[in-house]
Amino acid sequence: MIFSVIAFAIMNTVVKYLSGYSVYQIVFFRSIGTLLFTIPLIIKLKIPILGNHKNLLFLRGVIGVISLTCFFESLNYLAVGTAASLRFTSPIFAAIFALLFLKEKIKPIQWLLFLVAFVGVLIIKGFGVDVHTIGILLAITSAIFLGLIFVVIRKLGNREHPLVIINYFMVMAFVFGGLMSIKNWKQPNMSEWFLLLSLGIFGYIGQLYMTKAFQSDETSVIAPLKYLEVIFTIIIGVFWFGDIYNIWTLLGIFLIFVGLIYNIYLKRKTS
C-alpha cells in the first residue's frame, strides 16, 4: 500500500500540472499507459482476460471510472492536497459499505473517529483558503465511489488476478475517456506526451499494489493507509505549485488524517 500511495501522489501532481487538458483526455491517457502493461502481461501469463466474476469486475470498472473522473475534475477547483484529503474520506464510506455488504463489524469508537474525520471536512469547507464548493462535491463523490471500490475488490478477494481487475477498469476508462475526448481534444507537445503517458505508468503501479493490498487483508485495515498519499501530495503541491494552506485547512486535514489512521491501531489491537 505504501508503494501504491507514492505512485498515486505523483500521478495526482502530474494531473494537476496538466489542468489545461479536459478531464476526459486525462482519463483517456491515464488508461492507455496502464493498458500497455496489463494486456501484454495478461497474454504472457495466459490469464483469462474476461475473468470469472464478470458482474463484479464490470461493476468495479464502472465505479472506478466515475471515481477517477470526479477526482481529476476536482483538481481544477482545489489545491491538490485538499482534493486528496477530501477524497480520502473514502474509508468512512468503505467501512459503511463493508458493514452493509460484507458484514464486517464497526466498533462504536470507530464511528466516533469517522465523525472526527468528517468534522475535518467541515472545517476545510468553512475556513479553508479558496475552497470551491463544486470541487468539494466532486472530491466527496469520488470518495463515495472509491469506498465502494474497496469493498468490491475485497468481495472479489483472491478469486481474480489483480491484472484482470485493473484491466477491466482501464478498458472502461479508455472507452469512456476516448469517446468523450473526441470533441474536447487538445494536441500535446513532446513533453506533454511524456507526462500524459506517465499517468498510466504511475497509475498502473498504484493500482496494482492497491489491489494486492486489499486482496490480502481486511478493508478497514488497508483503506486508512491511503492517507499517507495525502502527506506526499501536500508536500509536492507546496513545492511544485506553491499551494497555500491556512491553519484551518491544515487542522481539517489533520483531523481527517488522525480520525482514520487511528482505525489501523484499533483494528490491529483487537486482531
Describe this entry's structure for a reader.
The chain is an all-alpha fold and 271 residues long. The chain has one domain. 79% of the residues lie in helices and 0% in strands. The protein has helices spanning 2-17, 23-44, 54-74, 80-87, 90-102, 108-127, 133-156, 162-181, 190-216, 219-222, 228-241, 247-270.
Molecular shape:
globular
What integer value in Å does the Rg equal? 18 Å
Relative strand content: under 5%
Q: Helix share of residues?
A: over 70%
Distance between the termini: 19 Å
Number of helices: 12
Question: How many separate structural domains?
Answer: 1
Uncertain residue ranges: none
Number of strands: 0
Taking the sheet with the most strands, its summary is: none
What oligomerization state is this entry in? single chain
Structural class: mainly alpha
| Mean pLDDT over the full residue set | 86
Q: What is the ordering of alpha helices and beta strands?
A: HHHHHHHHHHHH
Fold topology:
Elements: H1 2-17, H2 23-44, H3 54-74, H4 80-87, H5 90-102, H6 108-127, H7 133-156, H8 162-181, H9 190-216, H10 219-222, H11 228-241, H12 247-270
Helix pairs in contact: 1-9, 1-11, 2-3, 2-8, 2-9, 3-7, 3-8, 4-7, 4-11, 5-7, 6-12, 8-9
Quick description:
The protein has helices spanning 2-17, 23-44, 54-74, 80-87, 90-102, 108-127, 133-156, 162-181, 190-216, 219-222, 228-241, 247-270.
Task: Give me some keywords for this one.
271 residues, mainly alpha
